[in-house]
Design brief:
Layout: H1 6-12, E1 16-17, E2 28-29, H2 31-50, E3 54-55, E4 61-63, H3 64-70, H4 72-76, E5 84-86, E6 89-93, H5 98-106, E7 117-126, E8 142-152, H6 157-175, E9 181-186, H7 197-214, E10 218-222, E11 231-237, E12 243-252, H8 254-258, E13 263-264, E14 270-271, E15 274-279, H9 284-295, E16 308-312, H10 318-330, E17 335-337, H11 345-351, E18 357-361, H12 363-368, E19 370-375, E20 382-385, H13 386-399
Parallel strand pairs: 3-7, 9-10, 16-17, 16-18
Antiparallel strand pairs: 1-2, 4-6, 5-6, 7-8, 8-15, 9-11, 11-12, 12-15, 13-14, 18-19, 19-20
Helix pairs in contact: 1-9, 6-7
C-alpha cells in the first residue's frame, strides 16, 4: 500500500514544514503550499459570495468577558490558552469566531428585511492542544477556519441550514472529497453542555428536519455536540480508516440569547434571531491534509500548485517553450518550463508525474506551433495547437471539478 500520510507527502512536495523554534503544532506554509491554500481559500470565498454571504474580518484576541458571555470560558476553557494581562485587562486568543460575529451582528439595528444575514470569515483561532495529540496539519494549535454564521428568523432556520449542507456537498464534488457519513451530534452526560433542555430539543428537531429533507442517511451520536447546541457533522476517513469531522452545520438558540441579539419584525416588535453556524471545509489545515491523502498529492487541476509543465526536447526549443508558458500565465494558469538542463526528457516527465498537464515540444512542434500533450493519468490526447491546448486546459481549470480532460 502506498504511503499516503499527508505529513510525508507535504514535505516531499514542499508544501509545509515545522521548526522547533516556532513550536509544536505551528506549521508554516512553503510557496507551493501557499498556492494550494490561497486557491482553496479563494474558492470558498467565491462560493460563499455566490450564495449570498458577506465577508468580514474580526480580531483574533478578545477580552475574557466576551468568552464568559458566550459560554466558552465556563464550558471550553480547558481548550483555550490562558489569559494575558494587557493594560490591566485579561485578553485571550479566541477559540472560536462565533462570539465576534455575534457582536458584529448586534452592532447595528437589524430588521426582518435584513434576514437572513449571512456573515462569513476565513479567520484565525487557537486551541491549546496537548503535545501528544499534535500531528502534521490535522491537529494544530493555530487554525485558519472557514467559518460563517447566518442570523435568521426561526422560520428560515431549516432552509438556511439545508442550504449550507448543499454548499458543503457541492464543494466536496469540486474537491473530490467523499463524505464517509453524516452524524447528528447530540449532548451527552456531565456539565460540558449549557443547561436548557427546551432549546436543545428545539434545535435537535430542526436539524433532524434538515437531514431528512436533504435525503442523506445519518446516525445520531450522543456526546459529540458543541457545548451550546447540537450539530450536523460531515465525517471523513483517512487512508488508515481513522474518522474525523471536516464540515459542520449547527442551529444555535443559546448564543443569540446570551448576546441579547434582536431584530425588528414586521409587527414592529423586537424578536430573537436564530444563529446557524456552518463551515464548508472546516479548518484550511485539516482540509489540505485530507486532500493530500485523498488524492495522493495529485490535486484536482484547478487546485494543483503547478498545473502545466512544458518540456522542450532540446535546448533549441526552450525559447518557444518559455513563450508558451507566458501565454499560459497570461490566461491565469500556473505553468513552468522544465528544460534540458534539468535532465533527460524521461527523468523530467517522471519528476512532473503529479502535474496535471505535461506538454512536450520537439523541433517539429516548435516549428508548427504544436504541443504533444500528456495527462497525469497516462492518457495522451495527441498533438494539439498551442492555442487550442491552452484554451482547453483553462476551461477545465475554470470549471473546477476533478476531471482532467473533456473531449473536444
Amino acid at each position: 500500500m502506498r504511503d499516503l500520510d499527508h505529513r510525508r507527502l507535504g514535505r516531499e512536495l514542499g508544501l509545509f514544514d515545522t521548526d522547533p523554534l516556532m513550536g509544536a503544532g505551528l506549521p508554516y506554509w512553503l510557496p507551493e503550499g501557499a498556492v494550494v491554500r490561497h486557491t482553496l481559500e479563494e474558492y470558498v470565498r467565491e462560493a460563499e459570495r455566490a450564495a449570498g454571504y458577506r465577508h468580514v474580518y474580526s480580531p483574533v484576541l478578545g477580552k475574557r468577558e466576551l468568552y464568559e458571555l458566550s459560554g466558552h470560558w465556563d464550558h471550553y476553557r480547558d481548550d483555550m490558552y490562558p489569559p494575558m494581562d494587557v493594560g490591566g485587562e485579561q485578553m485571550l486568543l479566541r477559540p472560536s469566531l462565533c462570539p465576534h460575529h455575534a457582536l458584529i451582528f448586534r452592532s447595528r439595528t437589524r430588521s426582518h428585511r435584513d434576514l437572513p444575514y449571512r456573515m462569513a470569515e476565513l479567520g484565525g483561532m487557537y486551541r491549546s492542544e496537548r503535545s501528544g495529540v499534535l500531528g502534521g496539519l490535522t491537529r494544530v494549535r493555530a487554525i485558519q477556519l472557514n467559518d460563517a454564521h447566518i442570523f435568521c428568523t426561526p422560520d428560515q432556520a431549516v432552509e438556511e441550514a439545508a442550504g449550507a449542507l448543499g454548499l458543503i456537498s457541492r464543494a466536496y464534488a469540486d474537491l473530490g472529497i467523499r463524505a464517509a457519513r453524516h452524524r447528528l451530534s447530540l449532548p451527552g452526560g456531565g456539565g460540558k453542555y449549557v443547561a436548557d433542555p427546551a432549546l436543545w430539543r428545539r434545535a435537535t428537531a430542526l436539524l433532524r428536519e434538515v437531514l431528512e429533507a436533504s435525503g442523506v442517511p445519518y446516525e445520531a451520536v450522543e456526546g459529540e455536540a458543541a457545548f451550546y447546541g447540537p450539530k450536523i457533522d460531515v465525517q471523513i476517513t483517512d487512508p488508515a480508516g481513522r474518522e474525523s469531522t471536516l464540515s459542520t452545520v449547527q442551529i444555535d438558540f443559546h448564543q443569540p440569547e446570551r448576546f441579547g441579539l434582536r431584530y425588528t419584525g414586521p409587527d414592529g416588535a423586537r424578536h430573537r434571531p436564530v444563529m446557524v453556524h456552518r463551515s464548508v471545509i472546516g479548518s484550511v489545515e485539516r482540509a489540505v491534509a485530507h486532500l493530500l491523502e485523498e488524492h495522493g498529492g495529485a490535486f484536482p487541476p484547478w487546485l494543483a500548485p503547478l498545473q502545466l509543465v512544458v518540456l522542450p526536447v532540446g535546448e533549441e526549443q526552450e525559447e518557444h517553450a518559455h513563450a508558451v508558458v507566458r501565454e499560459a500565465v497570461a490566461l491565469g494558469l500556473r505553468a513552468e518550463v522544465s528544460g534540458r538542463a534539468e535532465g533527460s526528457l524521461g527523468s523530467r516527465i517522471r519528476r512532473s508525474r503529479l502535474v496535471p498537464y505535461q506538454a512536450v515540444m520537439g523541433a517539429r512542434e516548435a516549428e508548427d506551433g504544436l504541443l504533444a500533450v500528456r495527462l497525469r493519468d497516462g492518457r495522451r490526447p495527441g498533438v494539439l495547437p498551442v492555442a487550442e491546448f491552452l484554451r482547453r486546459v483553462e476551461g477545465r481549470v475554470r470549471a473546477r471539478g476533478t476531471a482532467l480532460w473533456e473531449p473536444a
